[in-house]
Recover the amino acids of this structure.
């Protein structure tokens, strides 16, 4: 029996993602991996996989897959219509597919990214220890296209499911804690500026970074017009380019940057940012060091 699924349609974007390839910044390689990591972990548990198995990150739905053999799928992330051969199957629960059956994702009612796990996990060749696609460097598998056949690994065992998994409801207004530094001194009282400013997520945002639209952050007078030598940056870094409008780096970020980083987002809130659609209102709140 063939253990594979065939991609029939991708929607706006569909990428293979696992938990990423952290620890390679010294090679200039970003961590990558699922932007909404808890949703991928849950999808894998529902499908009977190890939490770090590779699945599919689908942006705004439209993904269609045909099972080439018997398998179990699970779809997580925001609430989204899921059908099998045109019949409602539901998300956030294991769904069995027979060979030839087609599972399809509609458009999520809110949020941005859904995750599809298939029993056995997607077993494309790993690069630097991960099967994740890095959209900035091109490391990992190419973005999925109709006609791609994705091999599956051997199932670990029957899916065990969860008692009750209500889909999250991503908000259209987010307040995100930020630990100030290392270059907060380049800005005039950034905590006070955060308290006054509200930004909106730009349509130009992607897996590299969440670009924010709105009023600029004002630099301290002694740093006006100054340039910064490139230095290391991490996932969640809030970099402020010359126009003063912050960019929050996500999993496919460059490993160095030449603009000051005013702070770093609390890692626990990165999944919320992964689901922030263009137009979502963002406020930053200075967080005291632990």
């Amino acid at each position: 029996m063939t253990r594979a699924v065939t991609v029939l349609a991708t929607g706006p974007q569909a990428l293979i993602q696992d938990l990423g390839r952290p620890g390679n910044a010294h090679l200039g390689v970003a961590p990558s991996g699922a932007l909404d990591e808890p949703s991928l972990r849950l999808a894998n548990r529902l499908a009977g996989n190890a939490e770090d198995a590779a699945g599919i990150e689908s942006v705004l739905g439209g993904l269609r897959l045909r099972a080439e053999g018997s398998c179990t799928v699970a779809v997580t992330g925001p609430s989204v219509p899921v059908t099998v051969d045109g019949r409602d199957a539901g998300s956030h629960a294991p769904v069995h597919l027979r060979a030839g059956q087609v599972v399809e994702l509609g458009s999520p009612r809110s949020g941005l990214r859904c995750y599809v796990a298939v029993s056995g996990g997607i077993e494309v060749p790993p690069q630097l220890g991960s099967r994740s696609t890095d959209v900035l460097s091109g490391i990992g598998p190419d973005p999925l296209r109709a006609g791609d056949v994705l091999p599956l690994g051997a199932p670990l065992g029957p899916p065990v499911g969860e008692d009750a998994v209500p889909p999250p409801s991503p908000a259209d207004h987010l307040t995100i804690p930020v630990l100030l530094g290392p270059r907060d001194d380049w800005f005039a009282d950034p905590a006070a500026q955060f308290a006054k400013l509200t930004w909106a997520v730009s349509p130009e945002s992607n897996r590299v970074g969440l670009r924010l639209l709105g009023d600029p952050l004002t630099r301290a007078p002694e740093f006006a017009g100054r340039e910064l030598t490139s230095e290391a940056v991490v996932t969640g870094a809030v970099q402020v380019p010359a126009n003063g409008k912050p960019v929050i780096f996500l999993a496919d970020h460059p490993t160095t940057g030449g603009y000051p980083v005013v702070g770093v987002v609390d890692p626990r809130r990165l999944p919320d940012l992964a689901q922030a659609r263009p137009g979502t209102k963002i406020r930053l709140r200075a967080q005291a060091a632990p």
In short: Helices lie at 37-47, 190-196, 270-274. The two ends are 53 Å apart (CA to CA).
